[in-house]
Amino acid sequence: xxxxxxxxxxxxxxxxxxxxxxEDFVTFGAVCTxxxxxxxxxxxxxxxxxxxxLLMLPDKGHDYQEFxxxxxxxxxxxxxxxxxxxQEFFPxxxxxxxxxxxxxxxxxxxxSRTSIQLPSLNDLLALHGQEALKNYGxxxxxxxxxxxxxxxxxxxFDRVYCVVCCKGQFYALTCNVEVWVFxxxxxxxxxxxxxxxLEYIINQSIYWYLVEISDALFIVSQSVxxxxxxxxLGYYHIRTVRFNKYEVDVTKS
Length: 253
Known about the structure:
- By secondary structure, this protein is mainly β.
- The chain has 4 helices and 16 strands.
- The chain has helices spanning 9-17, 22-29, 33-38, 121-128; strands at 54-56, 64-69, 74-79, 88-92, 95-99, 105-108, 115-118, 140-141, 150-151, 160-166, 169-174, 179-183, 192-195, 206-213, 216-228, 236-248.
- Strands 4-5-6-7 form a 4-stranded antiparallel β-sheet, with no helix packed on it. Strands 10-11-12-13 form a 4-stranded antiparallel β-sheet, with no helix packed on it.
């Protein structure tokens, strides 16, 4: 049998282009060094197809990061020394937003190992001041090429539940179920209210999420029931009762 590591690089790339599932692509990159060099997002044609997310397990302090596949029900080790010893991970769209104990931040792709340096957490705190430590309405973003974060000018703003990107714009969902949109292409970013009259009941049994699916924006409500444990004082179980979905008209002016 021929040595798999000695296959021509163009042939290895052709094999990579035929892989359709992210779990198989991870295995492909673990064969040897030459195969790992071909395991880049440019060679993964199915990157834009719907994929079942992988679960990343806590860092164990070594050069390999452990992932769990929900679809295949198995664990995989990925060579990723860049995450060793980092404090926080915030996964989104296949990327990891990482932060060290010193406040250094970066974007890291766990499979291509592409890294993009971001301004530090200290720069972010300096931009917002002490409000960033107690106000959940403080938002900033970073454009490639910028030296620092760009502050979003929110005044008298409610607590922000989540922020998503859809069609090149950012949308923020507040605790009062208001949706705000802001265009990052302009130098001075001013939020614009998009949704403010959604009929709902605010109580501790409803959670709200803002979700982007195939370039469409949805507000998702999760209704839950709190089951108190009579055997353990102050302990309870949360049981989901139903989900409701509302599509947001992003063309609204």
